[in-house]
Amino acid sequence: MTSILLLVVLLAAVVSVAFLIRPQRTSTFEFYLAGRRVGVVTNACAICGDYFSAASFLGVAAAVYASGLDGMWYATGFAAGFVPVLLFIAAPLRRFGEFSIPDFLGRRLESNSVRLTSVAIVQLIILAYLVPQAVASGIIWELFVGQGVGGLSAYSTGVLVSTAAIMLMVSLGGMRGTTWTQAVQFLLLLAIFVWLAIIVIGSGFSYPEALRELSSRPLANPAETGGAWQLEEVTNRLHPESPAFFGEPGGQYSQLGQFALIFSLALGTAGLPHIMNRYFTSPTGTAARMTTVWVVGLAGLFYTLAVLLGTAARSVIRDVSDELPWLADLTTGGVLRVPEYALLVLGQVFGGRAGLGLIAVGALVAVLSTIAGLLLASAASWGHDIYERYINPRATQNQALWAGRAAVAVVAAVSALLALAVRPDTLTGQFPSIVATMVTWAFALAGSALTPVFILAIWWRRTTGPGAAAGMAAGAVTAVGMCGAGVLLGDAPYASVLMTPTLVSAPCAAAATVAVSLLTRPPPDMDRIWVRLHGTAADRRAVRIARLTVTGIGRRSGEGR
Protein backbone atom coordinates (compact mmCIF):
# COMPACT_ATOMS: atom_id res chain seq x y z
CA MET A 1 0.00 0.00 0.00
CA THR A 2 2.87 2.37 0.80
CA SER A 3 4.32 1.77 -2.68
CA ILE A 4 1.07 2.75 -4.35
CA LEU A 5 0.77 5.90 -2.22
CA LEU A 6 4.34 6.93 -3.08
CA LEU A 7 3.72 6.64 -6.81
CA VAL A 8 0.34 8.37 -6.57
CA VAL A 9 1.97 11.27 -4.69
CA LEU A 10 4.65 11.52 -7.40
CA LEU A 11 2.08 11.56 -10.20
CA ALA A 12 -0.06 14.12 -8.36
CA ALA A 13 2.99 16.33 -7.77
CA VAL A 14 3.92 16.26 -11.47
CA VAL A 15 0.42 17.28 -12.53
CA SER A 16 0.24 19.97 -9.81
CA VAL A 17 3.52 21.59 -10.85
CA ALA A 18 2.38 21.71 -14.47
CA PHE A 19 -0.91 23.31 -13.38
CA LEU A 20 0.68 25.91 -11.11
CA ILE A 21 3.23 27.16 -13.68
CA ARG A 22 0.99 26.87 -16.73
CA PRO A 23 1.02 29.90 -19.05
CA GLN A 24 -1.49 32.54 -18.00
CA ARG A 25 -1.96 33.76 -21.57
CA THR A 26 -3.71 31.20 -23.72
CA SER A 27 -1.83 31.12 -27.02
CA THR A 28 -0.13 28.54 -29.20
CA PHE A 29 3.12 30.53 -28.91
CA GLU A 30 3.13 30.02 -25.13
CA PHE A 31 1.73 26.46 -25.26
CA TYR A 32 4.27 25.11 -27.80
CA LEU A 33 7.33 27.37 -27.28
CA ALA A 34 7.08 28.83 -23.75
CA GLY A 35 7.40 32.29 -25.30
CA ARG A 36 10.98 31.50 -26.45
CA ARG A 37 12.28 32.65 -23.08
CA VAL A 38 13.87 29.44 -21.76
CA GLY A 39 17.43 30.01 -20.46
CA VAL A 40 20.51 27.96 -21.38
CA VAL A 41 20.90 25.89 -18.20
CA THR A 42 17.17 25.42 -17.72
CA ASN A 43 16.75 24.25 -21.31
CA ALA A 44 19.78 21.95 -21.01
CA CYS A 45 18.28 20.30 -17.93
CA ALA A 46 14.90 20.05 -19.67
CA ILE A 47 16.48 18.46 -22.75
CA CYS A 48 18.27 15.97 -20.48
CA GLY A 49 14.98 15.21 -18.76
CA ASP A 50 13.40 14.72 -22.18
CA TYR A 51 16.29 12.64 -23.55
CA PHE A 52 17.23 10.46 -20.57
CA SER A 53 14.27 8.21 -20.98
CA ALA A 54 13.57 4.73 -19.66
CA ALA A 55 16.10 3.51 -22.24
CA SER A 56 18.73 5.61 -20.49
CA PHE A 57 17.76 5.08 -16.86
CA LEU A 58 16.78 1.41 -17.01
CA GLY A 59 17.79 0.31 -20.51
CA VAL A 60 21.50 1.18 -20.61
CA ALA A 61 22.17 -0.45 -17.24
CA ALA A 62 20.06 -3.43 -18.36
CA ALA A 63 22.01 -3.76 -21.62
CA VAL A 64 25.33 -3.66 -19.73
CA TYR A 65 23.93 -6.17 -17.22
CA ALA A 66 22.90 -8.63 -19.94
CA SER A 67 25.65 -8.14 -22.54
CA GLY A 68 28.63 -6.61 -20.76
CA LEU A 69 30.83 -4.51 -23.01
CA ASP A 70 28.36 -4.72 -25.90
CA GLY A 71 25.75 -3.04 -23.70
CA MET A 72 28.11 -0.09 -23.28
CA TRP A 73 27.70 0.76 -26.97
CA TYR A 74 24.25 2.07 -26.08
CA ALA A 75 25.79 4.55 -23.65
CA THR A 76 28.38 5.56 -26.25
CA GLY A 77 25.79 6.13 -28.97
CA PHE A 78 23.31 7.98 -26.75
CA ALA A 79 26.03 10.28 -25.37
CA ALA A 80 27.58 10.95 -28.79
CA GLY A 81 24.22 11.85 -30.30
CA PHE A 82 24.44 15.51 -29.38
CA VAL A 83 27.77 16.08 -31.14
CA PRO A 84 26.16 16.30 -34.63
CA VAL A 85 23.43 18.48 -33.12
CA LEU A 86 26.05 20.83 -31.68
CA LEU A 87 28.12 21.01 -34.87
CA PHE A 88 25.46 21.16 -37.58
CA ILE A 89 21.92 21.78 -36.38
CA ALA A 90 21.23 23.57 -33.07
CA ALA A 91 22.09 27.19 -33.93
CA PRO A 92 20.74 27.34 -37.55
CA LEU A 93 17.54 25.57 -36.51
CA ARG A 94 16.83 28.13 -33.79
CA ARG A 95 17.83 31.11 -35.94
CA PHE A 96 15.34 30.12 -38.59
CA GLY A 97 12.67 29.70 -35.90
CA GLU A 98 9.22 28.04 -36.23
CA PHE A 99 7.12 25.74 -34.07
CA SER A 100 8.16 22.22 -35.07
CA ILE A 101 10.21 20.09 -37.46
CA PRO A 102 7.47 19.97 -40.14
CA ASP A 103 7.04 23.74 -39.79
CA PHE A 104 10.78 24.31 -40.24
CA LEU A 105 11.10 22.03 -43.28
CA GLY A 106 7.90 23.36 -44.86
CA ARG A 107 9.01 26.99 -44.63
CA ARG A 108 12.69 26.38 -45.43
CA LEU A 109 11.80 24.46 -48.60
CA GLU A 110 8.52 26.32 -49.26
CA SER A 111 6.70 23.06 -49.82
CA ASN A 112 3.41 21.69 -48.47
CA SER A 113 4.32 18.15 -49.55
CA VAL A 114 7.40 18.26 -47.33
CA ARG A 115 5.32 19.51 -44.42
CA LEU A 116 2.78 16.68 -44.77
CA THR A 117 5.44 14.02 -45.32
CA SER A 118 7.40 15.15 -42.28
CA VAL A 119 4.24 15.17 -40.13
CA ALA A 120 3.72 11.50 -40.99
CA ILE A 121 7.36 10.66 -40.25
CA VAL A 122 7.33 12.63 -36.99
CA GLN A 123 4.22 10.84 -35.76
CA LEU A 124 5.74 7.46 -36.61
CA ILE A 125 8.92 8.31 -34.68
CA ILE A 126 6.93 9.59 -31.71
CA LEU A 127 4.86 6.43 -31.58
CA ALA A 128 7.96 4.22 -31.87
CA TYR A 129 9.52 6.14 -28.97
CA LEU A 130 6.39 6.30 -26.81
CA VAL A 131 5.71 2.56 -26.72
CA PRO A 132 8.95 1.54 -24.91
CA GLN A 133 8.40 4.34 -22.37
CA ALA A 134 4.95 2.95 -21.61
CA VAL A 135 6.44 -0.57 -21.43
CA ALA A 136 8.99 0.68 -18.89
CA SER A 137 6.26 2.24 -16.74
CA GLY A 138 4.53 -1.14 -16.65
CA ILE A 139 7.78 -2.88 -15.65
CA ILE A 140 8.34 -0.38 -12.82
CA TRP A 141 4.83 -0.74 -11.44
CA GLU A 142 5.00 -4.54 -11.74
CA LEU A 143 8.14 -4.84 -9.62
CA PHE A 144 7.60 -1.96 -7.20
CA VAL A 145 3.85 -2.20 -6.52
CA GLY A 146 3.24 -5.77 -7.62
CA GLN A 147 -0.53 -5.50 -7.91
CA GLY A 148 -3.04 -4.07 -10.31
CA VAL A 149 -6.14 -1.93 -9.92
CA GLY A 150 -9.68 -2.72 -11.03
CA GLY A 151 -8.92 -6.28 -12.08
CA LEU A 152 -6.00 -5.27 -14.32
CA SER A 153 -2.53 -6.81 -14.04
CA ALA A 154 0.22 -4.82 -12.36
CA TYR A 155 1.92 -4.28 -15.74
CA SER A 156 -1.27 -2.97 -17.39
CA THR A 157 -2.03 -0.70 -14.44
CA GLY A 158 1.42 0.89 -14.61
CA VAL A 159 1.07 1.56 -18.33
CA LEU A 160 -2.38 3.13 -18.06
CA VAL A 161 -1.85 5.19 -14.88
CA SER A 162 1.44 6.77 -15.96
CA THR A 163 0.19 7.54 -19.48
CA ALA A 164 -3.00 9.16 -18.16
CA ALA A 165 -1.11 11.29 -15.61
CA ILE A 166 1.42 12.66 -18.06
CA MET A 167 -1.27 13.27 -20.68
CA LEU A 168 -3.04 15.47 -18.13
CA MET A 169 0.20 17.28 -17.27
CA VAL A 170 0.97 18.15 -20.89
CA SER A 171 -2.59 19.27 -21.59
CA LEU A 172 -2.55 21.61 -18.59
CA GLY A 173 1.00 22.94 -18.60
CA GLY A 174 2.05 23.14 -22.24
CA MET A 175 5.73 23.82 -22.98
CA ARG A 176 6.28 26.09 -19.98
CA GLY A 177 4.94 23.58 -17.47
CA THR A 178 6.66 20.70 -19.25
CA THR A 179 10.02 22.55 -19.35
CA TRP A 180 10.18 23.16 -15.61
CA THR A 181 8.92 19.72 -14.65
CA GLN A 182 11.44 18.10 -17.01
CA ALA A 183 14.31 20.19 -15.61
CA VAL A 184 13.39 19.27 -12.02
CA GLN A 185 12.86 15.64 -13.00
CA PHE A 186 16.33 15.45 -14.56
CA LEU A 187 17.99 16.87 -11.44
CA LEU A 188 16.11 14.31 -9.35
CA LEU A 189 17.14 11.57 -11.76
CA LEU A 190 20.82 12.55 -11.59
CA ALA A 191 20.68 12.80 -7.79
CA ILE A 192 19.27 9.25 -7.56
CA PHE A 193 22.02 7.93 -9.84
CA VAL A 194 24.70 9.68 -7.76
CA TRP A 195 23.16 8.38 -4.51
CA LEU A 196 23.10 4.79 -5.73
CA ALA A 197 26.66 5.04 -7.07
CA ILE A 198 27.91 6.39 -3.73
CA ILE A 199 26.12 3.63 -1.79
CA VAL A 200 27.47 0.91 -4.10
CA ILE A 201 31.06 2.17 -4.06
CA GLY A 202 30.87 2.79 -0.30
CA SER A 203 29.94 -0.87 0.22
CA GLY A 204 33.32 -1.90 -1.20
CA PHE A 205 32.43 -2.34 -4.88
CA SER A 206 35.38 -1.82 -7.24
CA TYR A 207 34.65 -1.47 -10.94
CA PRO A 208 38.03 -2.81 -12.18
CA GLU A 209 37.88 -5.81 -9.83
CA ALA A 210 34.25 -6.58 -10.69
CA LEU A 211 34.99 -6.36 -14.42
CA ARG A 212 37.96 -8.68 -14.03
CA GLU A 213 35.95 -11.18 -11.96
CA LEU A 214 32.91 -11.14 -14.30
CA SER A 215 35.16 -11.66 -17.31
CA SER A 216 36.81 -14.72 -15.78
CA ARG A 217 33.95 -17.01 -16.89
CA PRO A 218 31.67 -17.18 -19.94
CA LEU A 219 28.66 -14.85 -20.05
CA ALA A 220 25.39 -16.74 -19.42
CA ASN A 221 21.81 -15.42 -19.26
CA PRO A 222 18.47 -17.04 -18.32
CA ALA A 223 16.37 -18.55 -21.10
CA GLU A 224 13.01 -20.29 -20.87
CA THR A 225 13.08 -23.78 -22.39
CA GLY A 226 10.13 -26.13 -22.16
CA GLY A 227 8.49 -24.02 -19.47
CA ALA A 228 11.59 -24.04 -17.26
CA TRP A 229 14.24 -21.35 -16.80
CA GLN A 230 17.91 -22.20 -17.13
CA LEU A 231 21.19 -20.39 -17.76
CA GLU A 232 22.51 -20.57 -21.32
CA GLU A 233 25.94 -19.42 -22.43
CA VAL A 234 25.92 -16.44 -24.80
CA THR A 235 27.61 -17.11 -28.14
CA ASN A 236 30.36 -14.71 -29.12
CA ARG A 237 29.18 -12.82 -32.23
CA LEU A 238 32.78 -12.06 -33.23
CA HIS A 239 33.98 -15.65 -32.77
CA PRO A 240 30.94 -17.99 -33.02
CA GLU A 241 32.97 -21.03 -32.05
CA SER A 242 33.60 -19.63 -28.54
CA PRO A 243 31.43 -18.18 -25.74
CA ALA A 244 31.13 -14.47 -24.99
CA PHE A 245 32.69 -12.84 -21.93
CA PHE A 246 31.38 -9.85 -19.97
CA GLY A 247 34.38 -7.58 -20.49
CA GLU A 248 34.95 -8.41 -24.17
CA PRO A 249 33.06 -7.37 -27.31
CA GLY A 250 30.85 -9.89 -29.07
CA GLY A 251 28.20 -10.56 -26.43
CA GLN A 252 25.44 -9.14 -28.59
CA TYR A 253 26.90 -7.54 -31.74
CA SER A 254 29.35 -8.35 -34.49
CA GLN A 255 32.01 -5.80 -35.39
CA LEU A 256 29.74 -4.31 -38.04
CA GLY A 257 26.80 -4.47 -35.64
CA GLN A 258 28.68 -2.46 -33.01
CA PHE A 259 29.46 0.31 -35.48
CA ALA A 260 25.91 0.23 -36.89
CA LEU A 261 24.40 0.63 -33.41
CA ILE A 262 26.59 3.60 -32.46
CA PHE A 263 26.00 5.24 -35.85
CA SER A 264 22.22 4.78 -35.56
CA LEU A 265 22.08 6.29 -32.08
CA ALA A 266 24.46 9.16 -32.84
CA LEU A 267 22.68 10.15 -36.04
CA GLY A 268 19.20 9.49 -34.65
CA THR A 269 19.36 12.12 -31.90
CA ALA A 270 19.33 14.94 -34.46
CA GLY A 271 16.03 13.67 -35.85
CA LEU A 272 14.11 13.18 -32.60
CA PRO A 273 11.10 15.55 -32.72
CA HIS A 274 10.76 16.05 -28.96
CA ILE A 275 14.44 16.99 -28.65
CA MET A 276 14.70 19.25 -31.70
CA ASN A 277 11.50 21.09 -30.78
CA ARG A 278 13.15 22.21 -27.55
CA TYR A 279 15.66 24.28 -29.53
CA PHE A 280 12.82 26.48 -30.80
CA THR A 281 12.30 27.60 -27.18
CA SER A 282 15.82 29.12 -26.87
CA PRO A 283 16.05 32.92 -27.15
CA THR A 284 18.81 32.85 -29.83
CA GLY A 285 20.91 30.52 -31.98
CA THR A 286 23.91 31.10 -29.73
CA ALA A 287 21.84 30.11 -26.68
CA ALA A 288 20.77 26.94 -28.50
CA ARG A 289 24.40 26.01 -29.18
CA MET A 290 25.48 26.69 -25.58
CA THR A 291 22.54 24.62 -24.36
CA THR A 292 23.90 21.70 -26.39
CA VAL A 293 27.37 22.11 -24.85
CA TRP A 294 25.80 21.72 -21.40
CA VAL A 295 23.82 18.69 -22.55
CA VAL A 296 26.96 16.94 -23.88
CA GLY A 297 28.67 17.31 -20.50
CA LEU A 298 25.64 16.17 -18.50
CA ALA A 299 25.13 13.20 -20.85
CA GLY A 300 28.72 12.06 -20.35
CA LEU A 301 28.28 12.06 -16.57
CA PHE A 302 24.90 10.33 -16.69
CA TYR A 303 25.93 7.47 -18.96
CA THR A 304 29.18 6.87 -17.09
CA LEU A 305 27.12 6.25 -13.96
CA ALA A 306 24.70 4.02 -15.90
CA VAL A 307 27.53 1.76 -17.09
CA LEU A 308 29.06 1.57 -13.61
CA LEU A 309 25.72 0.64 -12.02
CA GLY A 310 24.89 -1.97 -14.67
CA THR A 311 28.22 -3.67 -13.96
CA ALA A 312 27.64 -3.42 -10.21
CA ALA A 313 24.22 -5.04 -10.56
CA ARG A 314 25.69 -8.01 -12.46
CA SER A 315 28.31 -8.55 -9.78
CA VAL A 316 26.35 -7.80 -6.61
CA ILE A 317 23.02 -9.49 -7.38
CA ARG A 318 24.68 -12.82 -8.17
CA ASP A 319 26.68 -12.68 -4.94
CA VAL A 320 23.65 -12.02 -2.71
CA SER A 321 21.03 -14.12 -4.54
CA ASP A 322 21.40 -17.06 -2.12
CA GLU A 323 21.11 -14.80 0.92
CA LEU A 324 17.93 -12.96 -0.14
CA PRO A 325 14.93 -15.30 -0.63
CA TRP A 326 12.87 -12.71 -2.54
CA LEU A 327 15.39 -12.84 -5.41
CA ALA A 328 14.48 -16.48 -6.15
CA ASP A 329 11.38 -15.43 -8.10
CA LEU A 330 13.36 -12.94 -10.21
CA THR A 331 16.58 -14.82 -10.96
CA THR A 332 17.97 -18.03 -12.40
CA GLY A 333 21.40 -19.00 -11.17
CA GLY A 334 21.80 -15.54 -9.64
CA VAL A 335 21.04 -13.73 -12.93
CA LEU A 336 17.90 -11.64 -13.41
CA ARG A 337 15.43 -12.96 -15.98
CA VAL A 338 14.34 -9.41 -16.91
CA PRO A 339 17.47 -7.22 -17.24
CA GLU A 340 15.43 -4.00 -16.78
CA TYR A 341 15.03 -5.00 -13.12
CA ALA A 342 18.79 -4.51 -12.55
CA LEU A 343 18.77 -1.02 -11.01
CA LEU A 344 15.50 -1.60 -9.16
CA VAL A 345 16.86 -4.75 -7.52
CA LEU A 346 20.20 -3.06 -6.80
CA GLY A 347 18.31 -0.28 -5.01
CA GLN A 348 16.45 -2.81 -2.85
CA VAL A 349 19.61 -4.77 -2.06
CA PHE A 350 21.32 -1.69 -0.63
CA GLY A 351 18.34 0.34 0.60
CA GLY A 352 15.54 -2.10 1.27
CA ARG A 353 12.03 -1.13 0.18
CA ALA A 354 12.96 2.55 0.54
CA GLY A 355 15.86 2.07 -1.88
CA LEU A 356 13.61 0.24 -4.32
CA GLY A 357 11.08 3.04 -3.97
CA LEU A 358 13.69 5.69 -4.74
CA ILE A 359 14.90 3.91 -7.87
CA ALA A 360 11.32 3.25 -8.95
CA VAL A 361 10.53 6.95 -8.53
CA GLY A 362 13.60 7.84 -10.61
CA ALA A 363 12.68 5.38 -13.33
CA LEU A 364 9.09 6.60 -13.43
CA VAL A 365 10.31 10.20 -13.54
CA ALA A 366 12.43 9.30 -16.58
CA VAL A 367 9.42 7.72 -18.26
CA LEU A 368 7.05 10.59 -17.47
CA SER A 369 9.52 13.26 -18.56
CA THR A 370 10.10 11.65 -21.95
CA ILE A 371 6.43 10.89 -22.54
CA ALA A 372 5.66 14.56 -21.83
CA GLY A 373 8.11 15.77 -24.46
CA LEU A 374 6.86 13.27 -27.02
CA LEU A 375 3.21 14.16 -26.49
CA LEU A 376 4.00 17.87 -26.76
CA ALA A 377 5.89 17.28 -30.03
CA SER A 378 2.91 15.30 -31.32
CA ALA A 379 0.53 18.09 -30.32
CA ALA A 380 2.66 20.69 -32.16
CA SER A 381 2.72 18.51 -35.26
CA TRP A 382 -1.02 17.79 -35.36
CA GLY A 383 -2.37 20.99 -33.83
CA HIS A 384 -0.12 23.54 -35.52
CA ASP A 385 1.02 21.85 -38.74
CA ILE A 386 -2.21 20.09 -39.69
CA TYR A 387 -5.19 21.62 -37.90
CA GLU A 388 -4.22 25.31 -38.14
CA ARG A 389 -2.90 25.09 -41.69
CA TYR A 390 -5.20 22.65 -43.45
CA ILE A 391 -8.29 21.75 -41.43
CA ASN A 392 -9.21 25.12 -39.93
CA PRO A 393 -6.91 27.94 -41.15
CA ARG A 394 -9.14 30.51 -39.41
CA ALA A 395 -9.04 28.74 -36.06
CA THR A 396 -8.96 30.87 -32.93
CA GLN A 397 -6.13 30.40 -30.44
CA ASN A 398 -8.48 28.48 -28.17
CA GLN A 399 -9.59 26.13 -30.97
CA ALA A 400 -5.95 25.46 -31.98
CA LEU A 401 -5.02 24.67 -28.37
CA TRP A 402 -7.88 22.21 -28.01
CA ALA A 403 -6.85 20.54 -31.26
CA GLY A 404 -3.35 20.06 -29.82
CA ARG A 405 -4.77 18.68 -26.57
CA ALA A 406 -6.98 16.26 -28.49
CA ALA A 407 -3.91 15.05 -30.40
CA VAL A 408 -2.14 14.45 -27.08
CA ALA A 409 -5.01 12.26 -25.88
CA VAL A 410 -5.23 10.20 -29.07
CA VAL A 411 -1.48 9.55 -29.39
CA ALA A 412 -1.21 8.67 -25.68
CA ALA A 413 -4.08 6.18 -25.98
CA VAL A 414 -2.59 4.48 -29.05
CA SER A 415 0.85 4.13 -27.44
CA ALA A 416 -0.67 2.67 -24.26
CA LEU A 417 -2.65 0.10 -26.25
CA LEU A 418 0.48 -0.98 -28.14
CA ALA A 419 2.45 -1.24 -24.88
CA LEU A 420 -0.23 -3.48 -23.39
CA ALA A 421 0.37 -5.93 -26.23
CA VAL A 422 4.09 -6.24 -25.34
CA ARG A 423 5.28 -8.64 -22.64
CA PRO A 424 8.94 -7.89 -21.76
CA ASP A 425 9.66 -11.26 -20.13
CA THR A 426 8.89 -13.08 -23.40
CA LEU A 427 11.46 -11.07 -25.38
CA THR A 428 14.54 -11.09 -23.13
CA GLY A 429 16.09 -14.01 -24.99
CA GLN A 430 16.24 -12.07 -28.25
CA PHE A 431 17.20 -8.58 -27.02
CA PRO A 432 19.69 -7.44 -24.34
CA SER A 433 17.10 -4.89 -23.17
CA ILE A 434 13.69 -4.71 -24.80
CA VAL A 435 13.27 -1.05 -23.75
CA ALA A 436 16.67 0.04 -25.10
CA THR A 437 16.16 -2.01 -28.28
CA MET A 438 12.75 -0.51 -29.03
CA VAL A 439 14.08 2.99 -28.45
CA THR A 440 16.93 2.19 -30.83
CA TRP A 441 14.34 1.50 -33.55
CA ALA A 442 12.94 5.01 -33.04
CA PHE A 443 16.49 6.43 -33.25
CA ALA A 444 17.10 4.44 -36.45
CA LEU A 445 13.92 5.80 -38.05
CA ALA A 446 14.75 9.38 -37.01
CA GLY A 447 18.36 9.11 -38.21
CA SER A 448 17.26 7.57 -41.51
CA ALA A 449 14.29 9.73 -42.46
CA LEU A 450 14.87 13.14 -40.83
CA THR A 451 18.53 13.75 -39.99
CA PRO A 452 19.94 13.52 -43.56
CA VAL A 453 17.20 15.85 -44.81
CA PHE A 454 17.79 18.20 -41.87
CA ILE A 455 21.51 18.51 -42.55
CA LEU A 456 21.05 18.96 -46.30
CA ALA A 457 18.28 21.55 -45.83
CA ILE A 458 20.51 23.54 -43.47
CA TRP A 459 23.82 23.28 -45.32
CA TRP A 460 23.04 22.66 -49.04
CA ARG A 461 21.35 25.55 -50.82
CA ARG A 462 20.20 23.34 -53.69
CA THR A 463 17.87 21.20 -51.52
CA THR A 464 14.27 21.26 -52.77
CA GLY A 465 10.88 20.27 -51.42
CA PRO A 466 10.39 17.25 -53.72
CA GLY A 467 13.94 16.12 -52.95
CA ALA A 468 13.37 16.29 -49.18
CA ALA A 469 10.06 14.42 -49.45
CA ALA A 470 11.71 11.70 -51.56
CA GLY A 471 14.59 11.44 -49.09
CA MET A 472 12.32 11.10 -46.07
CA ALA A 473 10.24 8.44 -47.79
CA ALA A 474 13.29 6.49 -48.95
CA GLY A 475 14.91 6.60 -45.49
CA ALA A 476 11.73 5.62 -43.65
CA VAL A 477 10.84 2.73 -45.97
CA THR A 478 14.39 1.35 -45.90
CA ALA A 479 14.66 1.64 -42.12
CA VAL A 480 11.29 0.05 -41.38
CA GLY A 481 11.92 -2.75 -43.89
CA MET A 482 15.35 -3.59 -42.47
CA CYS A 483 14.14 -3.47 -38.84
CA GLY A 484 11.24 -5.76 -39.68
CA ALA A 485 13.56 -8.22 -41.42
CA GLY A 486 15.91 -8.16 -38.42
CA VAL A 487 13.10 -9.01 -35.99
CA LEU A 488 11.90 -11.87 -38.20
CA LEU A 489 15.41 -13.30 -38.56
CA GLY A 490 15.85 -13.45 -34.77
CA ASP A 491 19.29 -14.83 -33.89
CA ALA A 492 20.60 -14.91 -37.46
CA PRO A 493 24.17 -13.51 -37.84
CA TYR A 494 23.17 -10.20 -39.42
CA ALA A 495 19.88 -9.64 -37.58
CA SER A 496 21.44 -7.08 -35.21
CA VAL A 497 22.80 -5.09 -38.15
CA LEU A 498 19.38 -5.08 -39.83
CA MET A 499 17.78 -3.79 -36.62
CA THR A 500 20.15 -0.78 -36.64
CA PRO A 501 19.69 0.15 -40.31
CA THR A 502 20.88 3.76 -40.32
CA LEU A 503 24.22 2.76 -41.84
CA VAL A 504 22.30 1.84 -45.02
CA SER A 505 19.06 3.82 -44.83
CA ALA A 506 20.59 7.26 -44.07
CA PRO A 507 22.79 7.22 -47.22
CA CYS A 508 19.72 6.09 -49.18
CA ALA A 509 17.78 9.08 -47.86
CA ALA A 510 20.64 11.48 -48.63
CA ALA A 511 21.09 10.05 -52.14
CA ALA A 512 17.36 10.31 -52.90
CA THR A 513 17.26 13.90 -51.61
CA VAL A 514 20.24 14.97 -53.72
CA ALA A 515 19.09 13.15 -56.86
CA VAL A 516 15.56 14.57 -56.86
CA SER A 517 16.75 18.04 -55.78
CA LEU A 518 19.06 18.23 -58.80
CA LEU A 519 16.04 17.58 -61.04
CA THR A 520 13.78 20.20 -59.43
CA ARG A 521 13.90 23.91 -58.61
CA PRO A 522 14.94 25.20 -55.18
CA PRO A 523 12.96 28.01 -53.49
CA PRO A 524 13.37 31.31 -55.40
CA ASP A 525 14.50 33.55 -52.52
CA MET A 526 17.47 31.49 -51.31
CA ASP A 527 19.59 34.47 -50.23
CA ARG A 528 16.97 35.59 -47.72
CA ILE A 529 16.51 32.02 -46.45
CA TRP A 530 20.27 31.51 -46.12
CA VAL A 531 20.74 34.71 -44.12
CA ARG A 532 17.89 33.68 -41.86
CA LEU A 533 19.53 30.27 -41.25
CA HIS A 534 23.14 31.31 -40.81
CA GLY A 535 23.16 35.05 -40.11
CA THR A 536 24.01 36.11 -36.57
CA ALA A 537 22.53 39.61 -36.65
CA ALA A 538 19.39 38.49 -34.79
CA ASP A 539 21.54 36.88 -32.08
CA ARG A 540 23.56 40.08 -31.62
CA ARG A 541 20.41 42.19 -31.51
CA ALA A 542 18.91 39.93 -28.83
CA VAL A 543 22.09 40.21 -26.74
CA ARG A 544 22.05 44.02 -27.03
CA ILE A 545 18.40 44.16 -25.97
CA ALA A 546 19.12 41.88 -23.02
CA ARG A 547 22.05 44.08 -21.92
CA LEU A 548 19.98 47.24 -22.22
CA THR A 549 17.22 45.62 -20.20
CA VAL A 550 19.63 44.55 -17.46
CA THR A 551 21.26 48.00 -17.42
CA GLY A 552 17.88 49.69 -17.17
CA ILE A 553 16.80 47.46 -14.29
CA GLY A 554 20.11 48.14 -12.52
CA ARG A 555 19.74 51.91 -12.86
CA ARG A 556 16.14 51.80 -11.67
CA SER A 557 17.19 49.76 -8.61
CA GLY A 558 20.00 52.26 -7.89
CA GLU A 559 17.64 55.22 -8.07
CA GLY A 560 15.23 53.41 -5.75
CA ARG A 561 17.92 53.12 -3.10
Written description of the protein model:
The longest helix has 50 residues, at 342-391. The radius of gyration is 24 Å and the shape is globular. 74% of the residues lie in helices and 3% in strands. By secondary structure, it is mostly helical. The chain has helices at residues 2-20, 28-33, 40-51, 54-67, 69-80, 82-96, 101-109, 112-144, 154-202, 207-214, 255-268, 273-279, 285-320, 342-391, 397-420, 434-449, 451-459, 465-489, 495-498, 502-519, 526-534, 537-560; strands at 220-225, 228-233, 331-332, 335-336. The chain contains 22 helices and 4 strands.
What is the β-strand count? 4
Oligomer: single chain
Major pleated sheet: 2 strands, antiparallel
Distance between the termini: 56 Å
- From the spread of the alpha carbons, the general shape counts as globular
Which strand order do you get reading across the main beta sheet?
A: 1-2
Elements, N to C (H/E): HHHHHHHHHHEEHHHEEHHHHHHHHH
Average pLDDT, to the nearest integer? 82
Describe this structure in a few short sentences.
By secondary structure, the chain is mainly alpha-helical. It is 74% helix and 3% strand.
Describe this protein with a few key phrases:
561 residues; mainly alpha; two-stranded antiparallel sheet; 22 helices; 4 strands; 74% helix; globular
Topology of this structure?
Elements: H1 2-20, H2 28-33, H3 40-51, H4 54-67, H5 69-80, H6 82-96, H7 101-109, H8 112-144, H9 154-202, H10 207-214, E1 220-225, E2 228-233, H11 255-268, H12 273-279, H13 285-320, E3 331-332, E4 335-336, H14 342-391, H15 397-420, H16 434-449, H17 451-459, H18 465-489, H19 495-498, H20 502-519, H21 526-534, H22 537-560
Antiparallel strand pairs: 1-2, 3-4
Helix pairs in contact: 1-9, 3-9, 3-12, 3-13, 4-5, 4-13, 4-14, 4-16, 5-11, 5-13, 6-13, 6-17, 6-21, 7-8, 8-9, 8-14, 8-15, 8-16, 8-18, 9-13, 9-14, 9-15, 10-13, 11-16, 12-14, 13-14, 14-15, 16-18, 16-20, 17-20, 18-20
